[in-house]
Amino acid sequence: SLEMAERFIELGMMISFSGVVTFKKALDVQEAAQRLPLDKILVETDAPYLAPVPKRGRENRTAYTRYVVDKIAELRGLTSEEVAKATSDNAKRLFNCD
Q1: Residue 34's closest CA among 72, 65, 67, 78?
Q2: With CB atoms counted within 10 Å of each terminal CB, which end of the chain scores lower, N or C?
Q3: pLDDT above 80: residue 70
């Protein structure tokens, strides 16, 4: 839920979104992806499980992360490029990879 994610962020953590954010009934996950600060989110695959729509039901792959980015961009009214850059920058900051 958004409230739980906000609590983790208050503890200094980041929140990562997987293919679940693309699922039609994952409204609580979508709300969190839409409303959390952009500088506090990451994207991931959960490979080999939980492939995003439109690949749902197949083995998940790293390349499918783009669908997670696309969904978050749609939810936030941003471009996929903006979300991809922000989440890449966040990962670099988290893992000290500048």
Answers
A1: 72
A2: C
A3: yes
